[in-house]
Amino acid sequence: MISSFQTDQIRFRIWMVLFLFIATFTFSCRNKKIYEEPKSFIQKGVLDLRNWDPSGEPKIGLNGEWNFYWNEWIGDPNSLTQFLNDPEKVPLLKPIPKAWQYLEWKDGQNYPTDGYAVYRLKIYLPEEMMNLGLYIPNINSAFELYLDGEKVAGLGKIEREISKIEFDYKYSYVYFENKSKELDLVLFIENYNNVSAGIWDAPRLGTASAIEKIHRENISLDFFLFGALLIMSFFHLSQYFLLKDIYSPLYFGIFCFLGALRVLSINERLLAEFLNFYIVLRIEYSTVFLGILFYIFFVNSLFPKEFNPKIFFGIKIFFFLGSFLALFSPFVVYNWFTYYSLYFLLIPPVYSFYVSIKAIRKKREGAKIFLAGNLVFILAMVLDVLVALDIIIFPYIASIGMLSFVISQALILAQRYTKSFKNLQFASKQLLEKHRSQLRKNKELIALKNSLEAKVLERTQDLEKTNLLIEEELLKSEKLLQNILPRQIAKELKEKGSTSPVLYERVSVLFTDFKGFTKISESMTPTELTKELDACFSQFDNICDRYNLEKLKTIGDSYMCAGGIPKKNNTNPIDIVMAALEIQAFMNQMKDIKEMLGLPYWQLRLGIHTGPLIAGVIGEKKFAYDVWGDTVNLASRMESSGEIEKVNISGITYELIKDFFDCEYRGKIKAKNKGEIDMYYVKNLKDDLVVHNEKLESSGMDKNRVLTPNSKFWKMYAEYW
């Protein structure tokens, strides 16, 4: 008789033999493309697009026979010019996409992995002028891309000395206009670190909109996968911290987090925008080993009785080693280790498949759901391994497979929690029945107890209702008080019953007033007028909140706010000018919209002055937080002396903000009852303090946009604070 354990051992050996057979088969067909490549339009290094119709086929894969030059150095301007103008350079014709170590060189040998090569393609473009785009995907070696002799993209810094080669990732999306009818495309690739060199995936040429669509779709997919995995991670990690005795949510949450991190380090490599490229590569490689490590921890936590302890120990040692090498060893070491251990990455998923079969036989909870999700994950990993080994051409889909696996495993955990909850309910019901049985034996005592409990409950409920009403009224009073007064003043008023006015040495006051308000309002109903004012003043309120300003009052169509009260600060002149620019930008946007709709619109005068004043609450009825002093009057004069769509400031305010903003001196302007006062118009932030957006600036779309401060601005701002 064969025992159940022996049967399981036999089946496990069968699965391992099947796995080794698959691995042997894939190695044997190493240079055979399983996935059919797209139709090639390139013949003998030439792509003829003179009859190309972009409306029917907006993008074209640049796969086919490219001109290939081995060990031709064009890493500096002189060598590039000499190369492009040398008619004696005789190219070879080599297919793209394909790593060059799989291309035949001489004497039946292939090209070595280490070295450098030039890929060149002549493209004949249509007569019609159009905006084009070029997408260069998935080249992990250092490279430079030239169009008609001009460098337009690259990865890293190419040097003749290996020790000087540097890596710095840049997006390989290039946009240009076909001003000439011929395009000379040159790719110079240098490889001394990666186990696979050359072009793994065919570049794509197409209309700028088609290439931009590829870019947007890739980024959208990355963000979708990242968000889904991150939400799963936080959800299950929070479950672990609530139920610390159950480890499966912990392992599963870490697995999801590593998957989310890996999504940002592959494909579009979104992390490369913030981190060094070498760090991104370490994240890419380490998340593979760490992810599988926590994956196997998770499976073991689900089906511990079906897991062989020796196999579990061996998998842990191997993937701990892989994680350590990916995080701390030189690039060459972990790159080669990962490449030659790709097939071993399939062992944990395949073994978990075997474990799930055992769990199904033993009718373990969630085993069928686990098997279904795991099959998709295994298939995705197998395809990614074959792509990484250059056996097939196919997109990397491990992240999608992981998401499918994550969803299925989330169902398992939810199923277990549901069962635990039902067991708890059942146990509670049994306990209740026992309790009722005991109570029946003491009916008189129970009746008395129930009567007392009913009275206590009734009084408790009445008290709770009263407390709830009191709390609701307190919340309403609190909210109303905070809407009327600043938080600090409201707190003082509640604690002391009164507040004392305070003298502030530096406060910036802003006044606004709508031009043509009376005339336009005559053509509006009261409801329309109120709605329009509410929309404008609500936006002003939001802007004031963002810049730590205190709204003081509105009088008709006038709006007043101040910075530096009730909490003192030195940055209030800068804050209030930034708010003023944003208010005017908002009003200009409203003007543009209403002009397009043929509707009347309001235009805004805005004035600012900085100086000392007194602020506080006076009176006992209908109190309000207000300010007094000549600074308020001068700020009002700044508004009435200004012009529409401009920010008018006094000379005193100018002296405080001139290091941050470009201003236009108006001269000494006569202000009512104040004589002549120096006044300035604020244009915008200084150019060297702004984060520039070339697309918006070149298109003119930023005319009503408040410029974004850069790090230099915030450093100077911190010194003012």
Q: What's this model, at a glance?
A:
This protein is 50% helix and 21% strand. The chain is flat, with a radius of gyration of 36 Å.
Instruction: Please identify the structural class as seen in this structure.
Output: alpha+beta
Which word captures the global form? flat
Helical residues, percent: 40-55%
Gyration radius (Cα, Å) is 36 Å
- What is the straight-line distance between the termini? 84 Å
- β-strand number: 26
Q: Could you describe the largest sheet, including whether it forms a barrel? A: 8 strands, mixed
Q: If you average the pLDDT, what whole number results?
A: 78
> In percent terms, what proportion of residues is strand?
15-25%
How would you describe this structure to a colleague?
With 721 residues, the protein is an alpha+beta fold. 50% of the residues lie in helices and 21% in strands. It contains 19 helices and 26 strands. The strands form 6 sheets. Strands 1, 2, 4, 5, 9, 11, 12 and 14 form an 8-stranded mixed beta sheet that branches. Strands 17, 18, 19, 20, 21, 22, 23 and 24 form an 8-stranded mixed beta sheet that branches. Strands 3-16-10-13 form a 4-stranded antiparallel beta sheet, with helices on one face. Strand 11 and strand 12 form a beta hairpin. Helix 4 packs antiparallel against helix 5. It is flat, with a radius of gyration of 36 Å. The protein starts with a helix and ends with a helix. About 5% of the residues have low confidence.
Task: Give the SSE layout.
Elements lengths: L3 H25 L13 E2 L2 E3 L10 E3 L2 E7 L6 H8 L7 E5 L1 E2 L4 E3 L2 E2 L4 E10 L6 E5 L6 E6 L2 E6 L17 E5 L4 E10 L6 E2 L4 E4 H35 L5 H16 L13 H26 L6 H20 L2 H10 L6 H15 L5 H22 L9 H43 L2 H42 L2 H10 L5 E14 L1 H6 L3 H21 L2 E7 L2 E6 L8 H26 L5 E15 L7 E4 L1 H11 L5 E5 H7 L3 E11 L3 E11 L4 E2 L2 H6 L8 E2 L1 H10 L1
Parallel strand pairs: 2-9, 20-22
Antiparallel strand pairs: 1-2, 3-16, 4-5, 4-9, 6-15, 7-8, 9-14, 10-13, 10-16, 11-12, 11-14, 17-19, 17-20, 18-19, 20-21, 22-24, 23-24, 25-26
